[in-house]
């Protein structure tokens, strides 16, 4: 119990008034007529009897009345557990990202979250959220402790990468419609790599109070990990010294200089072991060559022997598929003798795949079946035999890939085969005595992908183009443009396949691209993209997506897809297998996939290696994020306390009791007054 105005309690001194009235009241004697006092003896009369308390019940009622009036003005209150009258919503966010597997972090975080839930007032609403690769809202705002506890206990450590920016954006979206006060309790290891590039993404709304529960206090343990693996996706000859090699990068975070043993495991069998010296907080590269793999998909693993404080990230998974070299059909005009030479040389020089180029003229394609080739190239062909064009169209719709290079015959085309559009115009830059360059390149496009293009536009800025055709992009994706805005490389999806359109040529007459190293990289990536080898094996990161089908299947043609996760279960239902276009790889391990075009694949999935850096966010940044500075620490403590309790003011109850006492005192005093009159 407490008082809002305790200084009014000084009025309790008024309790002396009833005492004064009852003890020091004036004694009144009623005079009586007597004939003479001469026969009475003089004596002293005692007043002790008059100083005793009389009418004890009346005295008690009057004292109680004074006490209650003073108590009412002091505004007494009692604390009661807050029902939902304060309007506060309690958000319990449990981090289940990959780094929470280190030590006992996740177990400690879950236990602390369950303890907070147990201390929650029964009527207060709460909501459970997990923060891993994606933010998952597990419950609605409810007060049912059984459901909330069940949701918390169902959260298991994941393999995703946490991002506090995603948390901030999600909380802002959740509180846009409801402006009720929110107490956000985050149970996490406060990993530095979970911070977004822009701190503003982490900022929470004004009605959200952030309370951080750090489960990784203390010194950061040293940790080594396999940060990156470079290995061939396809391998035709394990004895090929150029392609049969694998490199792994070993990284240390907060580590001293150490010698580490690295092992290569293929299909569960250790085939090679190397030792490498890793500098303090540095990186070292280890290479395995040759790689002895059998035909088909080989599940490979590079791992650090010996273990450390975080053994879950000591291995990296990847897949190598061994197969015979696949054939590529190269169709060119009879007068074009250079494009096949340049393209074939670049294809042979590429270090990531093995292809055999079969070059034919357009007139020799009548009896060819394109389905026997991994992809098709049409170079400078003005026309194609109608039979072959029809079969290629079917080949593309079922998942095949075609690269079309318009070349110098672009001006004579009335229609571009397979593309479904005409050449609008041609640009002969050499006729004006000059050349143009590449103005824009989309480096996120698979055939042009580069992580760090550099100032020279990834090497494309040095290219000179003398001739190009102008084509309406329509529904196609433009991956590159010339300086004057003319589309250079376009991609159009047709059924389950793709058609790439290069508006210049693959020889050195229309441009000097074949004379530069970037041509080899372009041919290599385009070949892997068109053949679909990027999807058939290799490795991916947790929470990345795999495209199972390129587009919605035509009416009457429904192709099922199939996914088998690392536990051997099929996560897709029958209806999803007929309609779903993409699938998210949520866990680390090996996935088996059958695509809508009938191809099979095995994919090794690894956690994001940013989770291996266990360094925490600086304390000043955490204070800035949560607002928990020394100036408002007391204010925050009161705010949290108010969430659990509410004040119930007793003023009205005291005044009601005082009214009852007043009525009783009035009735009792009237009764005593009547008795005195009768005695008189």
Structural class: alpha/beta
Strand order of the largest sheet: 17-16-18-19-25-24-23-21
User: What is the typical, i.e. mean, pLDDT?
Assistant: 84
Terminal Cα span: 49 Å
Q: How does the major sheet shape up?
A: 8 strands, mixed
Strand content: 25-35%
List the main descriptive attributes of the protein structure presented here.
13 helices; 8-stranded mixed β-sheet; elongated; 680 residues; alpha/beta; 5-stranded mixed β-sheet
Secondary structure elements and their pairing?
Blueprint: E1 2-3, H1 16-23, H2 56-73, E2 76-81, E3 89-95, H3 105-118, E4 126-131, E5 135-137, H4 145-154, H5 164-174, E6 182-188, E7 208-214, E8 223-230, E9 234-235, E10 246-253, E11 258-266, E12 269-278, E13 283-288, E14 296-304, E15 315-322, E16 326-332, H6 339-349, E17 355-361, E18 375-379, H7 386-397, E19 401-405, E20 423-428, E21 438-441, E22 467-471, E23 477-482, E24 487-494, E25 497-502, H8 518-531, H9 533-536, E26 539-541, E27 545-547, E28 562-564, H10 574-579, E29 582-584, E30 589-594, E31 600-606, H11 619-626, H12 633-644, E32 645-649, H13 651-679
Helix pairs in contact: 2-13, 3-4, 6-8
């Amino acid at each position: 119990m407490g008082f809002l105005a305790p200084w009014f309690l000084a009025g309790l001194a008024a309790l002396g008034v009833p005492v004064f009235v009852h003890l020091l009241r004036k004694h009144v004697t009623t005079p009586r007529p007597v004939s003479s006092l001469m026969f009475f003896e003089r004596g002293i009369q005692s007043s002790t009897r008059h100083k005793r308390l009389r009418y004890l019940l009346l005295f008690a009622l009057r004292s109680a009345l004074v006490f209650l009036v003073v108590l009412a003005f002091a505004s007494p209150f009692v604390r009661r557990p807050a029902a939902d009258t304060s309007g506060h919503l309690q958000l319990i966010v449990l981090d289940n990202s990959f780094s929470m597997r280190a030590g006992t972090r996740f177990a400690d975080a879950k236990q602390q979250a369950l303890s907070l839930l147990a201390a929650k007032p029964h009527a207060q609403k709460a909501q459970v959220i997990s923060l891993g690769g994606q933010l998952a809202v597990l419950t609605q705002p409810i007060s049912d402790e059984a459901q909330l506890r069940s949701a918390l206990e169902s959260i298991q450590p994941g393999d995703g990468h946490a991002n506090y920016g995603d948390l901030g954006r999600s909380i802002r979206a959740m509180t846009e419609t409801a402006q009720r006060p929110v107490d956000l309790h985050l149970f996490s290891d406060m990993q530095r790599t979970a911070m977004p590039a822009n701190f503003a993404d982490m900022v929470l709304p004004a009605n959200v109070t952030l309370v951080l529960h750090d489960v990784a206090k203390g010194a950061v343990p040293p940790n080594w990990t396999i940060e990156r693996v470079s290995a061939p996706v396809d391998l035709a000859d394990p004895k090929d010294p150029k392609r049969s090699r694998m490199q792994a990068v070993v990284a240390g975070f907060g580590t001293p200089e150490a010698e580490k043993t690295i092992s290569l495991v293929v299909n569960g069998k250790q085939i090679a072991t190397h030792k490498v010296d890793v500098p303090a907080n540095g990186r070292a590269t280890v290479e395995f060559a040759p790689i002895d793999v059998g035909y088909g998909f080989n599940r490979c693993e590079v791992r650090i022997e010996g273990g450390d404080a975080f053994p879950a990230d000591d291995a990296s998974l990847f897949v190598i598929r061994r197969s015979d070299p696949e054939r590529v059909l190269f169709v060119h005009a009879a007068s074009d003798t250079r494009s096949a030479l340049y393209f074939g040389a670049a294809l042979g020089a590429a270090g990531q795949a093995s292809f055999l180029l079969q070059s034919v003229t357009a007139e020799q394609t009548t009896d060819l079946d394109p389905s026997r080739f991994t992809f098709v190239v049409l170079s400078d062909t003005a026309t194609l035999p109608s039979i072959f064009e029809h079969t290629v169209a079917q080949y593309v719709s079922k998942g095949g890939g075609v690269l079309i290079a318009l070349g110098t015959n672009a001006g004579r085309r009335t229609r571009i085969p397979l593309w479904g559009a005409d050449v609008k115009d041609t640009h002969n830059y050499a006729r004006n005595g000059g050349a143009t360059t590449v103005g824009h390149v989309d480096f996120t496009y698979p055939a042009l992908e580069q992580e760090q293009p550099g100032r020279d536009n990834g090497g494309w800025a040095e290219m000179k183009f003398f001739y190009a055709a102008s084509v309406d992009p329509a529904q196609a994706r433009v991956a590159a443009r010339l300086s004057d805005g003319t589309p250079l490389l376009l991609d159009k999806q047709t059924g389950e396949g793709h058609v790439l359109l290069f508006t210049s040529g693959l020889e050195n007459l229309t441009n000097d691209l074949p004379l530069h190293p970037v041509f080899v990289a372009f041919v290599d990536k385009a070949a892997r993209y068109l053949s679909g080898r990027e999807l058939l094996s290799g490795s991916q990161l947790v929470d990345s997506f795999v495209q199972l089908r390129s587009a919605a299947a035509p009416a009457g043609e429904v192709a099922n897809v199939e996914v088998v996760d690392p536990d051997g279960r099929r996560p897709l239902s029958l209806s999803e297998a007929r309609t779903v276009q993409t699938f998210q790889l949520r866990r680390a391990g090996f996935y088996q996939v059958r695509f809508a075009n009938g191809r099979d694949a095995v994919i090794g999935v690894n956690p994001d290696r940013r989770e291996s850096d266990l360094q925490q966010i600086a304390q000043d940044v955490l204070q800035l994020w949560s607002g928990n500075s020394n100036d408002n620490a007391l204010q925050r403590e009161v705010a949290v306390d108010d969430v659990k309790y509410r004040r119930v003011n007793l003023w009205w109850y005291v005044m009601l009791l005082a009214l009852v006492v007043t009525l009783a005192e009035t009735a009792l005093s009237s009764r005593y007054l009547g008795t005195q009159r009768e005695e008189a």
